[in-house]
Amino acid sequence: MFFTRFDYKFDFMGKRHFAMMLSALLIIISLGSLLTHYLISGEPLVLGIDFTGGTLVEVGYEQPVELEKMRTLLHENGFPDAVVQHFGTTHDVLIRLGVHEESKDDPLSSQILRLLEQSGEGVNMRRVEYVGPQIGGELIEKGGLAVLYTLFGILIYVAFRFEYRFALGSIAALIHDTLIVVGFFSLFRLEFDLTVLAAILAVIGYSLNDTIVVFDRIRENFVKLRKQESVNVMNTSINQMLGRTVMTSVTTALVLIILFLVGGELIHGFSIALLLGVIIGTYSSIYIASATTLLLGVSKADLMPVQKEGVEKKEGSDNDGPGLEF
Amino acid sequence: MNHYPLWKYLLIAAVIFVCGLYALPNLFGNDPAVQISPAYARDTKIDDTVQETVETTLKEAKLSFTRIERTSRQLLVRFKNTNTQLKAYSILREALSDYVVAQNLAPATPDWLTGLGGMPMYLGLDLRGGVHFLMQVDMETAIRQDEETYVEELRTLFREKKLRYKGINRVIKEGGGIQVTFAALEIRNKAKKLIKKHYDDLVIVEKDRVGEYRLYMTFSEKALIENRQKALEQNITTLRNRVNELGVSEPVIQRQGDERIVVQLPGVQDTARAKEILGATATLEFRMTSDTREKWFEVERTKKVPINARLYHERDGNPVLLKRRVIVTGDQITDAAATIDQRSAQPATTIRLDSRGGKKMLQTTRKNVGKPMAVVFIEYHIETKMINGKKVTTRSKTEEVINVATIQEEFSKNFQITGLTSSEANNLALLLRAGALKAPMEIIEERTIGPSLGQENIDLGLLSIMLGFLAVMLFMWLRYKTFGLVADLALLMNVVILVALLSLLQATLTLPGMAGIVLTLGMAVDANVLIFEKIREEIANGNSHQSSIHLGYEKAFITIFDANLTTLIAAVMLFSFGTGPIKGFAITLSLGIITSMFTAIMFTRGLINFFYGGRKLAKLPV
Span A238-246, mean pLDDT? Predict the structure, then answer.
């Protein structure tokens, strides 16, 4: 009824050149967007105040508010750079300011709230964030390092568990995923804040999870289907795992869509990044990871000396797990 | 085939039971409450009289409470709703001015559960509302102040030892340090020996020029680290003291890295006031008392203060008459610590003054052995108010006598104050040290979440978790029939275990943390998907049903392990780099991955073994 067995024989690898081209196109668009925006405005990404520093005030009103009125009010009262926009509903307004000289006794956020209170109408403070300029630069550095360390840690682990070509293949897929998600945020001018960065790290984890599962089967099949071409082995493996790949991606995507729809404005960027990441990650574990590994010339000979893995057999289980079979 | 030994079933049952138990407190919610505790550094106790005052005050105001709980450290009054709580809060605050009265959300966990150590999850500020500050301590100033103190001390030392120096000063240029110039080589060498003897925390370098012999001193690496550490700790102590004054329940004040302090004040919305208090300056003065005790009370009554004296009050309201002349002020105190007096075996507070203060103290005490001396605590408050739409800043000064002690013998730089209880000695030392911030601080990050947004975030988070849960469950059931339901049960267990672990660890749950739970829901079923797909495959390969179950689980295990471990690498990286809310996400994600290994593999296997194991099956509902 719902699904029958996934007993497919798609020629995934046969279309790998087309997939490679598609990926190349997406990456070119991503890099292009980053570069163009950098050249035009000096801002490849719309960075959140977590990274840039500045002040953010979110206020709620009983009635829907006109942004234009608020904008003039703020612009004429000493905040010419205030960016005013609705946040979620027309009752909520988000005000952003760049880095200003902050006075200790009367912070900018209080000045703004006072200004809004004086203009009549009951205003309700919902959220205030102030990030000093010293924090922002630090976070960009730490965030970038976290992504690099993660990639490196994964590279070592996969190289140790599989083979270096698999490791490179999975890293290629991860860089591919990260670039496209970042490119998406750049192209559509979505705010890139700390939660989005967290989402990207989670995407790395998820996409890798997917890749490892496919690789595991490839490794198993390289040994099982000795007589076959590498391309065929990969095809068979991907087809065998297709049921699982689709199932897991769909459940994950499902909860992320829910998170996007009901999770609130605050984690919109977060859920978009994850959702996109899961879709791209699923695609990349099928094409990019395997195709790169293939491109690097992995063959059954590389996985044949399985004896060295026999060491694990002792500490592992007493039965035949994947990769341990002959 | 497919049989678990009894102990495995028992283990699974035990884990479920224990986790269920510790997840339970989260279902009871919170009571709005008012919490009354003794003010910082004051030896007031929570006793029957306090409880009676509270009860009568509330009765007079016709406010009903649901329960009063008393421990030696606090009194907790629970109310039915926030409205009553708010009214009671303002009334009690006036009635009990000597105590810290704070609004609080007290967990409504039943006593038997609390007795077992059960606690609900600790909600982050983005869920409960409140303010978060990240403060940077200006270490350079702290070191500069230390160097200036040393310059003074050295000057006195040289004078005492009759060593003639041409000049002594702090080097203003980069790196700082202290420089002393001498006219003769032998004096320089003598001075060097002397400094070495008295100050082992200085690194001394000789720098000679024609006709001039110089010593250049800097703090040793070890001393610098210690000084920074001390500055940070002292600022934290001061902040903790001040936060207490704000009447905040469950404040968080922690160091972050080498020169930063995080202050989290749940429930506080008025950041301006919080900032004022945190940045306040307090100081101390030492003065001799004037006249006799009888005279003090007389002056209190008649208000006729003698010319050379001033009237002060002790904390309990008793009058004290002090001489106008100040012996030593707080900025001359370099250190204070609680200790035990070696002669009398009584608790005491030791105080260390800088050289200027030490000298004045020596002169005074030499003449006044046997007479009482008082310690006055002075605090400057800066308060900004809106009056007729205009901002008015008022600065006020509070002065109170915190201690009157008799001078036993002459003393100078180092001395101690006895006649205190042990806790008073501790508190006094803290107060003396916490009297002022060691180094100036700057707020480099501030986040305030309004109370309505906090509740909204909780609601949205819960709704997402519930909907996500339903969607995944439905999906699994449609795809894997009965086995899918087994996986659904495992998913439910996963959430229960996750909640139990978060409650036990008291890890902070944030909105991204809730998103992490949602994501875990989607990913946790992956293990079961892998296993079930493998079982189907084995059946298709012509294996018997029982051996298919066995092979499915065994073969999928390594894949699941590899896949989850790599995800865990990413989650751990996320934890190490992230701050606040992001850490919350990393915690739930990594815990979720670990617990899902248990529920998706061992728990489902247990269920399947129990219902399908060791039997001949016509058809497997997978």
Answer: 87
